[in-house]
Amino acid sequence: MLSMQDLSKTFTTDSVQTHALRDFTLHVNEGEFVAVTGPSGSGKTTFLNIAGLLESFNSGQYILDGHDVSHLTDSQRSKVRNEKIGFIFQNFNLIPDLNLYDNVDVPLRYRGFNGAERKRRIEEGLAQVGLSGRMKHLPSQLSGGQQQRVAIARALAGDPRFILADEPTGNLDSEMAQSVMQLLQAINQQGTTIVMVTHDPALAAQAGRNIFVQDGRVHEEASLC
Amino acid sequence: MNLSRLEIGPLWRALLRNKVGASLIAIQVAVTMAIVINSLAIVIQRDAMMQRDSGLDEDNTFYITSTGYANDFNAQVSVTDDLSRLREMPGIVNAIQINAIPISGGGWSMSLAKTPGDDVETTNTAVYMVDENALETLDLSLVAGREFTPQEIRWRQPSQPNWPSLTIITEALAKSMFDSANNALGQTVYIGDEEPMTIIGVVDQLQAPWVGWSNLEHSMLSPENMAFTSTRYLVRTQAGQRDRMMLEVEEMLSSSQSGRIIRDTTTLTETRDRSYQQHEAMITLLLTVISALLLITIAGIVGLASFSVQKRQQHIGTKRALGATQIDILRFFLLENMLISGVGIILGTLCTVGLNIALVQWFHVTPLAWYYIPAGALVLIIAGQVAVLAPAKNAASISPAMATRAI
């Protein structure tokens, strides 16, 4: 599903070179639930950005769903993101001016689905996260946990090959965090591959595999389940 | 292109939820449209007025004033002598004595009627008192009939009230009174209620002295020289000789006899500039207002779009992460501006028509031609799209990685 081999990413400013990832190697199989942990500045977010094709890398190889995505153009990367990857962000990243229906609709429009297909997927997605009765609500009218559920519905609406979750419970209280984790586990059990970046060991322990990243390298890999 | 990528519905609903900024821009577009279109229509109308042909060979024509002051000054002798000398000068096509200068702002007007009496329908016209050399000097062409003969020219004394029995009129005046030049030829018109004048010729075009007059093209020629102590000569020179001849004529007239002053040598070009000075000033003022308003509106659009991009960086990054291409983002901002401008243009159309009705009613401006509105709308849409292009490009260049950054 996801295979990174000797990936390196360097950020360069006028006077400083920062090696965010060094010879980063990781393989995630289809249907896995992988948690990526590590201290601040370890390279977790850079890994997530590269895995989600949000950022490019300097060297190495990245195979996603059987295709080498190392040298895609910007618009090709957009297409791959839209079709294969579902994103869940720590801050939910819902568009505040759009109601829940329109928020879930965002990636579906870029996919080019017709109106009826989009409607079906939006309604199913929101129903799956228990928010079908609040389609016309704005994100500001929801709790944090509910907003993250909308973000999950948005990530799932396009039937992605895998989900990248960036600290998905980072802004939630423990009860809501647990509820979101249960939802992710349910999604994983339905066959969707999930890669979750988190600094919370307790959450990481609920994933199928735990990757520890430090100084831009995969430091330790342990199967917890 | 797949229409779903346009996001018109969500965009419109989002605009309705954030009305303030968008409404201000839409109102600005509406006000700009109303003022710009009406101003532009006035500019075009004024410019068209300024481009009207006076009928004269303006580039090669000038006039000069002779004012006798000596007790023994004989106006009749002076005019006869001056015209004879002027017409003999090399470089001069012809010259006449004339009571008023076309498009100069000052002259004579009379009313003509088809029947005698003081309670009949009349048509106003400018009157030029000229001799048999008028057509060549004024660069006029006969449309019908003939010109004056030397024998038909009389002398008008100061305060003499009556009129000659013949006249030549412009085609516009002929059409106004008799529908056509040919119908007018040989007809008798009555001047000063009772005095008959027979139309012996119709000329193509000669404008009246007053450029703002609604009957600007109505002129008549009266066959007479004036025995006035102060008089004006209109001189037409050969092409390119005007400036040289002005000096020579001034010198010749000054030296040919004493007891008079030669002054106010003026070209027709200067006269046109002076007569249309107010129009020119109005055009400059309105063009300045139009430019300023467009600039302010464009600046407003750039400002709102830039602020919007700045404020929505993470949303843009999120959209990019969710699959929007750079073109999608660019198109989003162009479309957003198009929708705001569209609302502004709908309001602006109403404002434009309303303002025009007010201008027509209060200031007697010519009503706006319908095509000004779509043309103005198009200009404002293009201006809006151009204005929003730079901020939209900035937005499109925002990295999708912005989605994962904490803001």
Describe the protein in words.
The complex is a heterodimer of chains A (225) and B (407). Chain A is of the alpha/beta class. Chain A has helices at residues 44-51, 74-84, 100-111, 115-128, 144-157, 174-189, 201-204, and strands at 2-12, 17-28, 33-37, 59-64, 67-68, 85-88, 162-166, 193-197, 209-214, 217-223. Chain A has a six-stranded mixed sheet with strand order 6-7-8-3-9-10, sandwiched between helices. In chain A, β4 (59-64) and β5 form a beta hairpin. Chain B contains twelve helices and twelve strands. Chain B has helices spanning 8-17, 19-50, 75-88, 134-137, 171-178, 181-184, 242-256, 268-275, 277-311, 313-321, 326-363, 372-396; strands at residues 61-68, 92-98, 108-113, 122-130, 142-145, 154-156, 166-170, 188-191, 195-203, 219-226, 230-237, 260-267. The longest helix of chain B is centred in the C-terminal third of the chain and has 38 residues, at 326-363. The mean pLDDT of chain B is 93.
Write the layout of secondary structure elements.
The complex is a heterodimer of chains A (225) and B (407).
Chain A (H helix, E strand, L loop, with lengths): L1 E11 L4 E12 L4 E5 L6 H8 L7 E6 L2 E2 L5 H11 E4 L11 H12 L3 H14 L15 H14 L4 E5 L7 H16 L3 E5 L3 H4 L4 E6 L2 E7 L2
Helix pairs in contact in A: 3-4, 3-5, 4-5, 5-6
Chain B lengths: L7 H10 L1 H32 L10 E8 L6 H14 L3 E7 L9 E6 L8 E9 L3 H4 L4 E4 L8 E3 L9 E5 H8 L2 H4 L3 E4 L3 E9 L15 E8 L3 E8 L4 H15 L3 E8 H8 L1 H35 L1 H9 L4 H38 L8 H25 L11
Parallel strand pairs in B: 4-10, 6-10, 7-9
Antiparallel strand pairs in B: 1-11, 1-12, 2-11, 3-4, 3-8, 5-9, 7-10, 8-9
Helix pairs in contact in B: 1-11, 2-9, 2-11, 2-12, 8-9, 9-12, 11-12
